[in-house]
Design a protein that fits this description.
This protein has five domains: 2-80 and 96-103, GIY-YIG endonuclease, CATH 3.40.1440; 114-175; 194-374, 3-Layer(aba) Sandwich (Rossmann fold), CATH 3.40.50; 385-611, 3-Layer(aba) Sandwich (Rossmann fold); 634-721, Ribosomal protein S10 (Alpha-Beta Plaits, 2-Layer Sandwich). It is 32% helix and 24% strand. It has 21 helices and 30 strands. The strands form seven sheets. A seven-stranded parallel β-sheet has the order 10-11-9-12-13-8-14, with helices on both faces. Strands 15-25-24-16-23-22 form a six-stranded parallel β-sheet, sandwiched between helices. Helix 4 packs across helix 5 (146-153), helix 7 packs parallel to helix 8 (225-239) and helix 17 packs parallel to helix 18 (604-611). The longest helix has 16 residues, at 194-209. The structure holds adenosine-5'-diphosphate.
């Protein structure tokens, strides 16, 4: 028997790229984008309606199941569904796995507890006063708490009570979370310098156009990029009361400062989104973003997958930062995907950095992106001088890491009651523990990575897998006693050296092992800003974005650290990090200096940094990339094959390589080869690297390739499009 009926195609958060067909029971009102509950196998699962179509339904031959129920949440927008499809295809992960990043815990789809609220009523008051008009102008079609509405409209509670009596407002119970305060675009801004103002005007003009475009906001550290993009945010808020803004940051450590600045500028705390926002708070943010009530979101890369009702501006701050690349689960680059999301939402995206990525600079040069530059710091603040200390000429004494010139500079700075930042991107006490008796280097179990000694916690820790153990008293290999010896410096060991060199100085360590929670980070930053710390020793957490007005000396303990290795972006990253860390110095009227300890002052990246000649460095690096056909001139994809034994991994990699689809010749394949971490958590690994020209659909090619391979259950194949890690 044939019947015409409604068919809903529902996508689930499972590793299947395509939606499944369901019947829609009579009386159930669905839209595309509705969040629904439907039977999936033996369980009920949450899914999203991807499409609804009318179809001939053969009731007997096709045993279709029915959608069970629909959640009262605002349906997912077209732009987000398109975005999910895009990321699913581009990353080769499939739309279902991307959807998983977009769905909250099932509880968040159910409405929050009831709360008394005020909504617009049916009557218009016969006697209109100014205060009443203010309230009615503000109310719109959303629910408010009485105090919140009174504050937003700038009237007393009695005006509201009066309007309720007249039926112009109505009391009701609504299932709402506590609302985020409404940001005020015109609350308080600094007086911009003429060049900042000009740049802000350009951004504001773009926001007003309400269409997709990408702009690189390229300004030296401390030039006021944040103040300038705040103006774009303000304009987006002014444009429409439902407009929402997303600010993406690479580090939780940066969030607090930006949140405080937002609160000052707009008189309201934005919604915050990162892995430390958990439980009810996480649900509240998700719901309020979906309803459109949360208008500004400051978050880490995963905020890109929030269900914005009306996204009208995205800012990616520190756009060059490699932590925007997600390295687990669905592998994607949040900056690149943010550009895609903005194009689908039809809004402006601003990429801000003092050291833009070569990809972004190339796009700006070719005219795909707009390019706005800020060349100066406001007021009397100047960029710090940068000098090199050649470690060949000034080697520190054995077991120490601070050279004499750096020690002297620190002494001078501290004598003037100014602050010092020592930068060393090595967590813990010592990166390697070696047995003096037998030469054993202690590794993580079943993993190709050395254990790092952490003295504060008394443990040896694997930074790759998270494994840790108490530091053993005897060598695990030869059982010798008192033979385990730390090699090389970590931030904790440097703190020990400072306590010897400057016993009077207050020294603290800023690294993810010590300052873990947002609260601890916030505390440390405010102590530093208040001048309570003399010497701050920091990993990359301390390098970016912070404003420490009394910090005048930055010492980079090992400027060469990132330069080695097979990573195509090693030099670029070193250049960026050192520029950023140097940029922490001299952010007020005080003059700053950055000293780089290096064995290779002549290295291109370091030399360009000393000469303050970014263009020379960028041109040289882009020239190299063009010759090699590497990004931004070509595309890259990596294949990571892993298995429970070396033999299986090796054979699987060879089998996989042999299946590479033939093409017109645009594709080049390297490997399989043994990576630096050949075994991680007991899984043996092999890698392939694939390169194509820009015009090739490399994701499509990789997906065809993977679909040809039938992996046994012992083998895992991971595809990494646009890889940033080559380990
Ligand atoms: P960036 O984001 O480029 O590093 P910020 O926007 O953080 O720069 O500005 C650096 C510091 O200078 C901040 O404390 C900021 O408030 C201040 N600042 C920037 N522009 C001005 C201005 N026009 N007047 C006063 N202070 C400013």
């Amino acid at each position: 028997m044939m019947n015409r009926g409604l068919l809903a195609k529902v996508l689930f958060e499972i590793p299947v790229a395509k939606p499944f067909d369901y019947l829609v029971p009579e009386g159930l009102v669905l839209e595309t984008g509705s969040y629904v509950l439907a039977p999936l196998g033996k369980r009920m699962a949450v899914g999203v309606v991807w499409k609804i179509e009318e179809a001939e339904i053969q009731s007997k031959s096709r045993r279709l199941k029915y959608v069970s129920s629909v959640f009262p949440t605002r349906p997912m927008g077209d732009d987000q569904r398109k975005f999910i499809d895009f990321v699913g295809k581009y990353s080769c992960a499939g739309a279902g796995r991307v959807l998983r990043m977009c769905l909250p815990a099932a509880d968040a789809l159910a409405p929050a507890a009831d709360m008394p609220v005020i909504i617009a009523g049916k009557n218009t008051p016969k006697q209109m006063t100014k205060a009443r008009q203010k309230v009615l102008d503000k109310i719109g079609n959303r629910a408010w708490r009485v105090t919140e509405l009174a504050k937003a409209a700038g009237v007393s509670g009695s005006v509201i009570q009066g309007l309720i009596k007249l039926g112009a407002l109505q009391r009701t119970l609504q299932q709402v979370d506590e609302n985020f305060a409404t940001p005020d675009p015109d609350r308080q801004s600094v007086e911009l310098t003429p060049s900042q103002q000009e740049t802000a005007n350009e951004l504001v003009g773009k926001v007003m156009q309400q269409c997709f475009s990408t702009i690189l906001l390229d300004g030296i550290t401390g030039s006021g990029k944040t103040e300038v993009y705040f103006e774009a945010v303000a304009e987006a808020l002014r444009q429409h009361p439902d407009n929402q803004v997303l600010i993406l940051l690479p580090e939780i450590a940066l969030t607090q400062d930006i949140l405080d600045r937002f609160a000052k500028r707009f008189g309201a705390q934005p919604a915050e989104w990162h892995s430390d926002v958990i439980g009810r708070q996480r649900q509240r943010v998700w719901r309020q973003v979906a309803s459109g009530q949360a208008r500004i979101v400051v978050g880490a890369r995963s905020a890109l997958f929030l269900p914005f009702a009306k996204l009208s501006l995205i800012v990616v701050d520190e756009e060059h930062d490699s932590s925007f690349k997600q390295e687990e689960g669905v592998l994607y680059h949040a900056r690149d995907m943010a550009v895609v999301r903005a194009s689908m939402a039809g809004c402006l995206i601003v990429l801000a950095s003092a050291t833009p990525s070569l990809e972004t600079l190339h796009n700006a040069k070719s005219g795909r992106y707009g390019h706005l530059a800020l060349q100066n710091r406001p007021g009397s603040s100047r960029l710090p001088m940068i000098g090199a200390i050649d470690l060949k000429q000034h080697p520190p004494i054995a077991g120490r890491w601070i050279s004499e010139p750096l020690r002297k500079a620190m002494e001078n700075t501290l004598a003037q009651n100014q602050q010092v930042l020592l930068y060393l991107n090595r967590r813990g006490y010592a990166p390697l523990t070696i047995c003096r008796a037998c030469g054993e280097r202690i590794k993580s179990p079943n993993t190709d990575s050395y254990l790092v000694e952490h003295k504060f916690s008394g443990r040896l820790v694997c930074h790759l897998t998270g494994f840790s153990m108490a530091k053993p008293a005897i060598c695990p290999a030869c059982k010798a006693e008192n033979s385990l010896h730390p090699v090389g410096p970590g931030v904790e060991r440097l703190a020990e050296e400072i306590s010897i060199l400057f016993p009077e100085a207050v020294c603290e360590v800023f690294s993810s092992d010590i300052t873990k929670t947002p609260e601890q980070i916030r505390n440390l930053i405010s102590r530093m800003q208040a001048g309570l710390i003399d010497v701050l020793i920091g990993t990359q957490m301390a390098a970016k974005g912070h404003n420490f007005p009394n910090l005048t000396l930055v010492g980079v303990v090992d400027a060469d650290m990132g330069l080695g290795g097979a990573d195509l972006r090693a030099a670029e990253r070193t250049y960026q990090t050192l520029t950023q860390v140097a940029g922490r110095a001299g952010r007020s009227h005080l003059e700053g200096i950055a000293l780089l300890q290096t064995h290779q002052p002549e290295h291109e990246a370091i030399d360009a940094l000393l000469a303050r000649d970014r263009q020379r460095y960028v041109d040289a690096e882009l020239g190299l990339r063009e010759q090699m056909g590497f990004p931004p001139f070509g595309r890259l994809a990596a294949v990571i094959v892993s298995a429970s034994s070396e033999k299986i991994a090796h054979q699987a990699a060879l089998d996989f390589a042999a299946l590479a689809p033939a093409t017109a010749g645009d594709i080049e394949i390297w490997g399989p080869s043994e990576p630096i971490f050949a075994v991680v958590r007991g899984r043996w690994r092999r890698r392939l690297l694939v390169r194509s020209s820009k015009k090739t659909d490399l994701s499509g090619y990789m997906l065809d390739w993977r679909n040809k391979y039938r992996a046994g259950n012992k083998v895992q194949i991971k595809l990494d499009i646009d890889p940033y890690s080559f380990l």
